[in-house]
Amino acid sequence: MSGGGLFVSFEGIDGSGKSTQARRLAEALRAAGRDVVLTREPGGSAGAEQIRKLLLEGAGERWSPETEVLLFTAARRDHLERVIAPALARGAVVISDRFADSTRIYQGVGRADLRPLVDELHRLVIAQEPDLTLLIDIDPATGLARAGARGGGETRFESFGLDLQERLRAGFLALAREAPDRVVVIDGAHEVQAVAQEVARVVATRLP
Q: Phi/psi at 95 (nearest 5 deg)?
């Protein structure tokens, strides 16, 4: 844990329900009297939110995977400096809807074989991992249908289709095997409240 706080990230493919679960966890911890910062990536700080628009809107081939890695890393650095690190230093629980694992999987595995580049940039520029990562796992076809039903303009990655979502899921599950002390897989196929209860149970074991 960093500075007495706890850094929790939520990961998963598009439509997994991770954003809902991140919000529910934040609400539950606040109700219990915890200082909680709920944030997201890409974004979370003013500068990073500007980069978010560049990354998530527009045509699928708007950016190359290499350019995506650089943009995500720039956004993450600003987010870390301005939001995450100060909150952890004061002892808050930081809950982030995505963090570096998304770049490792989306750009490092799903879109191109850039994992070594992602890891090296992370080492040089970010050098921060969550204390706990909750991977909300769901069938890719179900997730893609949910993501499509959401609507809105942030559909660039969904536009790559089911094949990408299947590769992303496999990548996330491989990452969970790679970092079992940090990444906990949660079955996202259950009813929302049941998933939230399992999330709360896991987080309770890590709270300071």
A: -115, 115
